[in-house]
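INFO batch 0412 | record 1 of 1 | parsing
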Amino acid sequence: MKKYCVVISKILLLLFVSVPLFSQQKIGFINTKMIREKLPDAKLAEQRCQTMVDEWKRELKSMEDKEEALQFEISKNRLVWSDAEKQKADKELKDLQTKRLKYANEKFSQSTYNEYDKIVEDIMRPVEEKIFATVQEVAAKERYDFIWDQSTMPLPYVNFKYDITLKVLKALGVDVSTEEAEQQKKIDSDARNDEDRRKAASQTPRGRSRGEKAQPTMQVPVQEANPTLNPIEMKEPERLRPQGE
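INFO prediction complete | emitting tokens
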């Protein structure tokens, strides 16, 4: 999962370095860390992972206690034990240390694909897939071309009107009414959005300025046709008179 995030971050960095190529694209962002913290399914998955980790730590602590107890016995009886007894105790202590180190490496080693990484991946995969699918759904609905993850690739400035994190959470069934109010404050306090609002306020449908009232349409009364005249007589009555009259 860590390698996946690194690869995604590099791709996103390449996109933003090449901004001119994507100047016509609509780009938004999310914060997956916030989504996981508020999504009940993610919390439950993290609790399951933490329960397993706690059990492994208790087992390691039990091994360490056995080592310390045996070390104490060796120190206390070294002068009275025979050479055979000393060798037996030393071998037992070494075996305990080897067993503990092997167990720790299997569970938490940073240099290999350990059991912790496997458990986290297996438990979190359904949650991550659910989040990913929802992000795609919301992004398509909002007509975004690119979505980047703020939690893995922070930037010095973002305009929160392009933040779809709360929309994703709402689509996942999470109540974010409080967070929406906070986000709106961030949007309102952004000077760039003030400029956009002024431009929007200065324009109304059909190009009228704000406050300008529509002019009433002049109603032209329609004269009823005289049933005794045909259409030609109504349009050009003079042409029907004989010349010389």
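INFO post-check: The longest strand covers residues 27-30.
INFO record closed
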